[in-house]
Amino acid sequence: MLIRATVNGVERAVDVPPATSLLTLLREELELTGSKNACEQGECGSCSVWLDGEVVCSCLVPAVQADGADVRTVEALAENGDLHPVQDAFLAAGAVQCGFCTPGLVVAVADLLAREPHPSEETIREALAGNLCRCTGYQKIIDAVRLAEGALA
Amino acid sequence: MTELAPRTLEDALRARAAHPEAVPVAGGTDLMVAVNFGRARPAELLDLSRVEELRTWRRDNGRVFVGSGMTFARITRELASFRPLVEASRSVGSPQIRNRATIGGNLGTASPAGDALPVLAAYGADIVVASQARERRLPWNEFFTGPKRCALEPDELIVGAEWDAVAGPGSFAKVGTRNAMVIAIAGICVQLDPHGRSVRVALGSVAPTVVRAPEAEELAAGAIAWDEPDRPPAESFVAEFARLAAAAASPIDDVRGTAAYRRHVVEVLARRELEWVLDDWRNGAC
């Protein structure tokens, strides 16, 4: 079926079977490969994107539900070649190792700080509970949230 | 294509009748896992995520209706006075999952591990289903017919859940391997009803469907000093209550835990939650 959606501010139209995941649509059809395909069951959060302003696992969204929607991916965070403050903070804090979880975490952190500019550590941990990182042990990611919090304030 | 992406319940029910091959989908967080792992290959989807009537909740004269399309994120934000329901909703998956997953999905999937289900059982909820021809209200224990089986007919859709609001403290707790992204090994809801002088106890993940614990409920109704909230419950009562709650479970061994461990979890959580709700009652928290 033909899916029309606004992806990172641009109107796109793609023809895919209705049960195709939004992640597959983004990666295979639109070549937006920032969102990662890892667990395919909503466990890891590597495919996190905004769907009509809410962070979702794009691997669990059937394409039919993206029809007419506003989709923002990690690619939308950097502007004119300048990294988003959350991305800068991840680099500065050493919150990136293998990098596979990073796009999803960056999206989840940007979403959290947009909703809650000064979250408690408990709030941070709950907000990031759906993003798995097997390298960092999470502490440096929490550090990055704090750095980004300062930069965005 | 809009026929399979209806905006109204009437259109959704018409599409359900006209396209029996189309699989209904709301949040997609159960269905798409099956699709991604090759266990389901739906030729067509009936997208219910835009049906306004399903995305509402209301409270009229003490009767509460929660539409099947209410996401767990919205329930957590909007139904604060239903604490066990909020606690259960907040324990579903992760923020990303809760932004999509719906209470109707818990009902339709009918897994005994659905987090909202012990709460609906403790509330004594009716499940509202509809076809083009009629609407039916099924008591929760008639709706669930087995593990991942429910009484929904092929031409019906789940409209929502409805119950009489209880004025009293309640609690939901579950045990899993971590605090998030966990399918419950066991989950329990304990709801106190001081006005009706009763306690409701419902168990998830420890039987083919969610179940109540009638013997524990009966004991509590008689043992609680309803006119004296300040009087602490006898230790022997609390222990017996927990034992009877565990006895209502008929769990199995599976990848998440053994039957013996599940019974143990029920006993421990039943005791803790009874103490919590009695504390809340004493402190006038609800």
Tell me what you see in this structure.
The complex is a heterodimer of chains A (153) and B (286). In chain A, helix 2 (85-93) crosses helix 5. A five-stranded mixed beta sheet of chain A has the order 2-1-5-3-4, sandwiched between helices. Chain A has helices at 22-29, 85-93, 102-115, 121-127, 139-152, and strands at 2-7, 10-15, 48-51, 54-57, 70-72. The mean pLDDT of chain A is 97. In chain A, strand 1 (2-7) and strand 2 (10-15) form a beta hairpin. With 153 residues, chain A is α+β, with helices and mostly antiparallel strands. Chain A has five helices and five strands; from the N terminus they run ββαβββαααα. Chain B has 286 residues and is an alpha+beta fold. Chain B has a domain at 170-282: 2-Layer Sandwich (Enolase-like, domain 1), CATH 3.30.390. Chain B has a five-stranded antiparallel beta sheet. Chain B has a four-stranded antiparallel beta sheet with strand order 10-11-12-13, with helices on both faces. Chain B has a two-stranded parallel ribbon with strand order 1-2. The longest helix of chain B has 24 residues, at 259-282. The termini of chain B are far apart. The relative contact order of chain B is 0.12. The model of chain B has no long low-confidence stretch (mean pLDDT 96). The A-B interface holds A 1-2, 18-19, 21, 40-43, 45, 48, 51, 54-57, 59-62, 64-65, 67, 108, 126-127, 129-131 and B 1, 4-5, 25, 27-29, 31-33, 35-37, 41-42, 44-45, 47, 49, 73, 93-97, 99-100, 179-181.
